[in-house]
């Protein structure tokens, strides 16, 4: 049997080429995810620094100023310190639940970023049910908090986990009804919702079509993030620190990161659902159409879209941070009454009103 060496070389080169294609395919799949995670991490550090500076300004005191220029590296120094601190476990607690709880809280929120469009079709996964996927995934986070509270074998931690679950259920229903009102008017895809607001610029935002839903969504998202005046699950005066009481080191840092990740994702969804996303406020000017002359123009248009999205997001973040350092904490009965007796009927009425307008327009 005679073997042609040329054919063998061709087969080997073809197999090497196929292997390289597979490697490049894997790199191409993971590169957007890694870029998104890196951007989110930097954003969280910026938010921590902003909150410290804004709170210092409101309380007329000096904020972080020694770690890096203007104290911008203080959050990075705190994170590094938590990484190297010892992880302690309760002697009579459930070690598995105690360890899994923080991971569930962070991962469930990180998955929500996959459906957020940062610019024109610059989204990790454009799904037809993008907004409802966010609601479904974000519902998992309180389960992690409940597991953490139960696994700590501490009555204060367990009460904090129960409060987190009760608060999440109370405010998730009005939040979902507001999103459903947006979906009835536009679509359930986050990209389609932004594009539907692009025709009339500033006046085409859903903020003007759904003003009631906007304020209900604003309050509900703050409650979902457990920010003051809704931080009942970790009330220091009553529960020492709630579900975080027994945690130390990197596990405590994961809870800290999860709260800011949740705040950022809520701010991004406010921008996408009500503030026009990546679109500028000048009517009849659509960013991709303005810069699609060549590849350089498209890159510039995408950059402008990202900048506009982040500018609107950080405006809402400023409002959230200011609210935290301005209003006092509610009682648990006031918090539940606000959710069930006020926000739920208002959001339901807004949904019925939106449905009526849709039926009349047909």
UniProtKB/TrEMBL annotation:
**What's a single GO MF annotation on this record?**
NADH dehydrogenase activity
Q: Which residues cross the membrane?
A: 23-50, 97-116, 128-147, 254-276, 296-321, 342-360
InterPro entries recorded for this chain? NADH_UbQ_OxRdtase_su1/FPO, NADH_UbQ_OxRdtase_su1_CS
Report the EC code(s) recorded for this entry. Answer: 7.1.1.-
Per its UniProt entry, what is the enzyme's top EC class, as one word?
translocase
Similarity section: Belongs to the complex I subunit 1 family.
- What does the subunit section of this Swiss-Prot or TrEMBL entry state? NDH-1 is composed of 14 different subunits. Subunits NuoA, H, J, K, L, M, N constitute the membrane sector of the complex.
Sum up the protein's function in the record's words: NDH-1 shuttles electrons from NADH, via FMN and iron-sulfur (Fe-S) centers, to quinones in the respiratory chain. The immediate electron acceptor for the enzyme in this species is believed to be ubiquinone. Couples the redox reaction to proton translocation (for every two electrons transferred, four hydrogen ions are translocated across the cytoplasmic membrane), and thus conserves the redox energy in a proton gradient. This subunit may bind ubiquinone.
According to UniProt, the name of this protein is NADH-quinone oxidoreductase subunit H
* Taxonomic placement: Eukaryota, Viridiplantae, Streptophyta, Embryophyta, Tracheophyta
């Amino acid at each position: 049997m005679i073997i042609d060496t040329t054919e063998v070389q061709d087969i080997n080169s073809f197999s090497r080429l196929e292997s390289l294609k597979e490697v490049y395919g894997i790199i191409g799949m993971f590169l957007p995810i890694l870029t998104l995670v890196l951007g989110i991490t930097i954003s969280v550090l910026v938010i921590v620094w902003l909150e410290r500076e804004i709170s210092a300004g409101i309380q007329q005191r000096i904020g972080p100023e020694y770690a890096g220029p203007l104290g911008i590296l203080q959050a990075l120094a705190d994170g590094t310190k938590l990484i190297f601190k010892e992880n302690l476990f309760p002697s009579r607690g459930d070690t598995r639940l105690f360890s899994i709880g923080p991971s569930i809280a962070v991962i469930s929120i990180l998955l929500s970023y996959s459906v957020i469009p940062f610019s024109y079709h610059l989204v990790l996964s454009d799904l037809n049910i993008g907004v409802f996927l966010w609601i479904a995934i974000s519902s998992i986070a309180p389960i992690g908090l409940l597991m953490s509270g139960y696994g700590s074998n501490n009555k204060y931690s367990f009460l904090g986990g129960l409060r987190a679950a009760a608060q999440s259920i109370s405010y998730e229903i009005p939040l979902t009804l507001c999103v459903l009102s947006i979906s009835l008017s536009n679509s359930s895809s986050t990209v389609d919702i932004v594009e539907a607001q692009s025709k009339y610029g500033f006046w085409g935002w859903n903020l003007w079509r759904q003003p009631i839903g906007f304020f209900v969504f604003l309050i509900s998202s703050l409650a979902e993030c457990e920010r003051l005046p809704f931080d009942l699950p970790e009330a220091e005066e009553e529960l020492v620190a709630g579900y975080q009481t027994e945690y130390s080191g990197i596990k405590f840092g994961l809870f800290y990161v999860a709260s800011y990740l949740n705040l950022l994702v809520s701010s991004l969804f406010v921008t996408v659902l009500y503030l026009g996303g990546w679109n500028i406020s000048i009517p009849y000017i659509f960013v991709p159409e303005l810069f699609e002359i060549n590849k350089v123009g498209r890159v510039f248009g995408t950059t402008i879209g990202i900048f506009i999205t982040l500018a609107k997001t950080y405006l809402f973040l400023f409002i959230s941070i200011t609210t935290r350092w301005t209003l006092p904490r509610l009682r648990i009965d006031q918090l539940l009454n606000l959710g069930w007796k006020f926000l739920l009927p208002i959001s339901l009425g807004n949904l019925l009103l939106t449905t009526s307008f849709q039926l009349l327009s047909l």
